[in-house]
Specification:
Elements lengths: L2 H9 L4 E2 L21 E3 L4 H14 L3 E4 L18 E4 L6 E5 L4 E5 L4 H10 L2 E2 L12 H6 L7 H4 L2 H4 E7 L5 E4 L12 H5 L8 E8 L1 E2 L3 E9 L2 H15 L3 E8 H10 L13 E9 L3 H17 L5 E4 L3 H12 L1 H8 L6 E3 L5 H15 L4 E7 L4 E7 L12 H14 L18 H4 L2 H14 L19
Parallel strand pairs: 2-4, 3-4
Antiparallel strand pairs: 1-2, 5-6, 6-10, 7-11, 8-9, 8-10, 12-14, 12-15, 13-14, 13-17, 16-18, 17-18
Helix pairs in contact: 1-2, 8-10, 9-12, 13-14
Length: 472
């Protein structure tokens, strides 16, 4: 028997893809990474995943897990060696249970994020994880990278929304931890070990997630600032004025909105682009729309009077709110249309964001005069998508400067006590640089964990902590 024949015996011939059938899954969605694989396998349930893993372990074949393939760091793309099996999780796409008393939803890892949101809404509940790729990314990928999104300010990252996991270990055993418990102090926190591990320690096959009551009303406003310091002041002002109602505070530079306006002229900008910084502020209220709007008007009017914000528009309908959010969600698409940029997903302490941006912008202009600063992100948790565009007319070949740009940005991030990855993960994009920017003891502990749980180095090799780093 061969590996391919054995895989067919587990999942069926129509779910073992080779050649041209496998090709769509062997590159990331930005086409930055292209790999090869012996086969792409589509298991239908957890037991089939476990059987595939056991088989690959017996053959000592590397495994790469993929969900919606929306990642930005190449974490779900195999290497060019062609020795791996890619395990595609999209057939594990069932909602297993909704418990409205416990406020939990249990889902398989291949469920699309939007599918989970809609399943919760049918039960008048909210699953608050929300990001631009929610129509195509999967829960397994969200958990594997500890995704953030636009409502982290109130609800936290994916890690904060997960109560339990089902995981297939590198040996093919099934770790069943789908209890919907808020408290379980019975040893090591295995759930949080697997979340954010990018498939390098095991394969998440299902999760029990937190739900919340649906808000009675939501309000969104777009506001303008004269400086980043004012934006930070408004963040604290909003925390005080809105209290627990504050869900999102999304920062955007004027350049981000300018390129959206250029690339998508049908998306009207409700404010003039006369200021360097803008933010989307979003609140939700459990009582009434009238109360939410009254509070929002009061806070914004006082902020205008105190000269914290320079202009503001409050959405008057759900459609207007959608249009405002669509501006924010269109930034990555516009960025790609004006020229492939060098993307950075970083975090620094909120109090140090303004000097970080000033100093790093200056350093980049000194390195490469005329580069464009494409800065947006989740100001409320210190996470910036600090992207760098080529000078106008110099787009060709600019990506070859990525390593130099990374060093400038990452050096600055560390100087400001930040992290080189906030929500996108490490993948293969930042793997080789990680030891330079993470404490050596932390790296040593991560390697020990990897060695203990995946002694053959078969789980997503070449990502985060590579098996070639070990003395196998």
């Amino acid at each position: 028997m061969s590996l391919i024949n054995d895989l067919v015996s587990i999942v069926g011939a129509e779910h073992v893809l080779e050649g041209e059938e496998a090709a769509p899954y062997l590159s990331d969605w930005r086409n930055r990474y292209k790999g090869r694989a012996q086969a792409v396998v589509r298991p239908a349930n957890t037991q089939e995943v476990a059987d595939v893993v056991k088989l690959c372990a017996r053959y000592e074949v590397p495994m790469v897990t993929q969900g919606g393939n929306t990642g930005l760091c190449g974490g779900a793309t195999p290497s060019n060696k062609g020795d791996a099996v890619l395990i595609l999780m999209t057939r594990l796409n069932h909602i297993l249970n909704v418990d409205t008393v416990n406020d939990t939803i249990t889902v398989q890892a291949g469920c699309i994020l939007q599918q989970v949101q809609e399943a919760a809404a049918k039960h008048e509940r909210l699953f608050p994880l929300s990001l631009a790729a929610e129509g195509s990314c999967t829960i397994g990928g969200n958990l594997a990278t500890n995704a953030g999104g636009t409502q982290v300010l109130r609800y936290g990252n994916a890690r904060d929304l997960a109560l339990g996991l089902e995981v297939v270990t590198p040996e093919g055993d099934i770790l069943n931890g789908l209890k919907g418990l808020r408290k379980d102090n019975t040893g090591y926190d295995l759930r949080n070990l697997y979340i954010g591990s990018e498939g390098t320690l095991g394969i998440i096959t299902a999760a029990t997630l937190k739900l919340y009551p649906q808000p009675a009303a939501e309000c969104t406003a777009l506001v303008a600032f004269e400086s980043l310091d004012d934006a930070l002041y408004m963040l604290n002002y909003s925390r005080k004025g809105f209290a627990s109602r504050l869900e999102g505070f999304e920062l955007m530079s004027d350049y981000c909105l300018k390129i959206v306006n250029e690339c998508f002229p049908e998306q009207s900008l409700p404010l003039s682009l006369d200021y360097p910084w803008y933010a989307l502020i979003h609140i939700a209220d459990s009582d009434s729309e009238e109360q939410a709007r009254e509070i929002f008007h009061r806070v914004l009017e006082q902020a205008l009077e105190d000269d914290i914000i320079q202009d503001a528009v409050l959405a008057e309908s759900l459609q207007q709110a959608h249009d405002l959010w669509h501006l924010r969600e269109s930034i990555p698409l516009a960025e790609a249309m004006v020229g492939q940029g060098i993307k950075n997903d970083i975090s620094v302490p909120i109090s140090r964001i303004a000097p970080f941006v000033d100093d790093t912008n200056t350093a980049l202009q000194s390195w490469y005069p005329g580069v464009r600063h494409i800065i947006f992100g989740h100001l409320g948790d210190g996470n910036l998508h600090y992207n760098i565009g080529a000078p106008v007319g110099e787009e060709e070949g600019f990506l070859s400067k990525q390593e130099e740009a990374f060093k400038i940005v990452f050096d600055s991030v560390v100087d400001y006590d930040g992290s080189i990855s906030a929500e996108h993960g490490i993948g293969q994009l930042k793997k080789d640089m990680l030891p330079d920017y993470k404490d050596e003891v932390e790296i040593a502990v991560m390697r020990k964990i990897k060695r203990a749980l995946d002694p053959l180095g078969l789980m997503n090799p070449g990502k985060v902590i590579d098996s070639v780093d070990f003395d196998y």
